[in-house]
Design brief:
homodimer, alpha+beta, Nucleoside Triphosphate Pyrophosphohydrolase, Arc Repressor Mutant, subunit A, 2 domains, seven-stranded mixed sheet, three-stranded antiparallel sheet, elongated, DNA-binding
DNA sequence: GCAATAGTGTCTATCAGACATTATTCT
DNA sequence: AGAATAATGTCTGATAGACACTATTGC
């Protein structure tokens, strides 16, 4: 931290503060033309910016995340969270959606910005700052596209991950934490279920993510009391036992958990 | 979003995914030397990355934030959140600390990453992605450095801000939201108070941030029950009335609110 | 009738919120 | 005595968690 302060005081090694830059310091890209342009912002070294997308879904009664296998240095043959460079004309969220689309073919899923990781040294090739997004996919729609790409991809239990490249384990930990917290006070869980589901299935979502057993009666009481569920009238029969009611999430009833 | 997908399919306009790049694609900066380096990552256009720091403090019984006045296009003469380019060898957090130090001379304050803003048009000069940090300063230490810099800086009530440059109003809104939420379930509020404080002062912090009156008895009951306060034995006498006990925050008692 | 899961209610402890009076200091 | 703020407790309604039995289906 002290080195950086020095670098800043030294006018030649670091750029001045952006918001203090005089008018002439920039070549406007899509703004009005400026009077003088003696100063090119490109003379400064810039980090690379990537957008990674941590996708999570419930598969085989497990919370799983999609990883891709690296085929080159660094971290050759290790698994990593999918991501890519940001294009100059797309928003961060668009880049995340693009990545999501490329890897899974799925659109319109739950997506939120998770955190930005940018330690120098996290990528040995060059300075890479990664804005990480976090997506939740419902298991049903996901079945469609199994293995499609040339690159090796796979779904892994977040509880039994292989060794991950870069600081990606830290990212998964961060995401899992966020997911668990949001589970308690938002309706985020519904993004992991198909449109219709039983209360038992919803409970299972909570149990898998929180990684603990929940009491059936208390759980149902709590969910039902919020009025966020709509009885579809339909029932789901599987196995040799009493069929379960199918519900649908009603986002209109914005009664928080 | 659709344009970006096109751009991606068009091999010449966008870079390949970072994590899929073959080994030879990079000039290692501080890694092992690679066998072949026909590919220079610098050929791709890169966004600028800045780190902005939204500083908040309690001043004059008000929640205020530090802004600097812009002196050039764009948004000339408007107020903005302080920030600057990131140096290639410093972490995001180090950059935020550097900015904090430059603007206020203060160190060791509460600092957390808030969010990353990166819409393509948010700065008309060039593509700028800003990682925003959020700092809380205690009012007492802050008195020391009043007006020091050449650039015009000022503290403004978050509730009566002037028109802000760029998307900075959105950033303030986001920060205020985060602060309010964290107030309820963390001990973040103590960062806005000096080492010793009265319960009334603590209550005032909550009232100012939540922007509503709180019941004195309920507030004290709740705080005291968490055991996060330590009675210093000292009292604070001001005005012609009964003096108030001075407390100190005890971080050891990690009893969440 | 057996296996298997769906569906349901009560009691208790804890917490949040409404609410008014006494205590201490200075002038 | 009066002004000003500190300090304190009770009641009530809501919520969370522990806990066990009946209902429906297929075989």
């Amino acid at each position: 931290m002290e080195e950086q302060s020095d670098a800043t005081r030294n006018g030649t090694s670091g750029p001045p503060g952006l918001h203090e830059l005089p008018h002439e310091s920039f070549v406007p890209v899509n703004g009005q033309p400026s009077e003088a342009e003696q100063y090119d912002v490109n003379q400064y070294e810039r980090p690379s910016v990537t957008v990674d997308v941590l996708m999570m879904s419930l598969r085989q009664r497990d919370l799983q995340t999609l990883l891709i296998k690296r085929r080159s240095w660094p971290y050759e043959d290790m698994w990593a969270i999918p991501g890519g460079f940001i294009n100059m004309n797309e928003s961060l969220e668009s880049a995340a959606k693009r990545e999501l689309q490329e890897e899974t073919g799925v659109q319109d899923v739950y997506l939120e910005q998770l955190y930005t990781f940018g330690d120098p040294g996290r990528d040995p090739r060059t300075r890479v700052i990664t804005v990480v997004y976090f997506a939740l996919l419902d298991s049903e729609r996901l079945q469609l596209r199994a293995a499609s790409d040339a690159t090796e991809v796979g779904w892994f239990s977040v509880y039994e991950l292989p060794q991950l490249a870069f600081d990606h384990q830290e990212i998964v930990d961060y995401a899992l934490n966020r997911l668990r917290n949001k589970l308690e006070y938002t309706t985020i869980a519904f993004n992991l279920l198909p449109e219709q589901f039983t209360l038992r299935e919803l409970q299972r979502v909570y149990e898998i993510i929180l990684h603990k057993r929940l009491d059936k009666r208390n759980f149902r009481k709590k969910i039902v009391s919020t009025n966020i569920l709509e009885d579809t009238g339909a029932k789901k029969m599987e196995g040799t036992h009493r069929p379960a009611r199918l519900y649908r999430f009603n986002p209109a009833a914005e009664h928080k958990l």
